[in-house]
């Protein structure tokens, strides 16, 4: 009699419910990522995917490149907002929704990123030749 053997990952994944995190009516999958919304400091991605955080598709169990779909760019009150979906290349399972924003506030460019896969990040850069935050006061 031949006995089937399952790896511990297959056994544990078959027992647990798949975690779905709804954002703007798009279900995102927490089981496809190593860490949900990792802190990326000031690394804000306008496009692309943070593949180091991708452990594999929870639906088809493959770890491959991702498709970027439903990409949109809109402008609201001087703020540029880029959104897109990360999809599994093999089964088109929605892994995450990515949102990137860019705006100019006073003398600074401000960037933000929020994505289950790519993480959360913020950055502010001066548009002046010399960043006033880096200047020292002279008395």
Rg, Å, rounded? 20 Å
Mean pLDDT: 79
| SSE ordering | HEEEEEEE
Broad structural category:
mainly beta
Pfam families: Churchill (PF06573)
Protein name: Protein Churchill
Keywords: Activator, Developmental protein, Metal-binding, Transcription, Transcription regulation, Zinc
GO molecular function: zinc ion binding
Show the helix and strand layout.
Elements: H1 8-15, E1 20-23, E2 26-29, E3 66-76, E4 79-88, E5 94-105, E6 108-115, E7 119-126
Antiparallel strand pairs: 1-2, 3-4, 4-5, 5-6, 6-7
Comma- or semicolon-separated keywords:
Immunoglobulin-like, 139 residues, disordered N terminus, developmental protein, mainly beta, 5-stranded antiparallel beta sheet, 7 strands, activator
Q: How would you describe what is shown here?
A:
By secondary structure, the chain is mainly beta. The chain has a domain at about 30-125: Immunoglobulin-like, CATH 2.60.40.4240. The chain is built from 1 helix and 7 strands, in the order H-E-E-E-E-E-E-E. The chain has one helix spanning about 10-15, and strands spanning about 20-25, 25-30, 65-75, 80-90, 95-105, 110-115, 120-125. The model is unreliable at about 1-25 (pLDDT under 50). One of its GO terms (molecular function) is zinc ion binding. Belongs to the Churchill family. One of its GO terms (biological process) is fibroblast growth factor receptor signaling pathway.
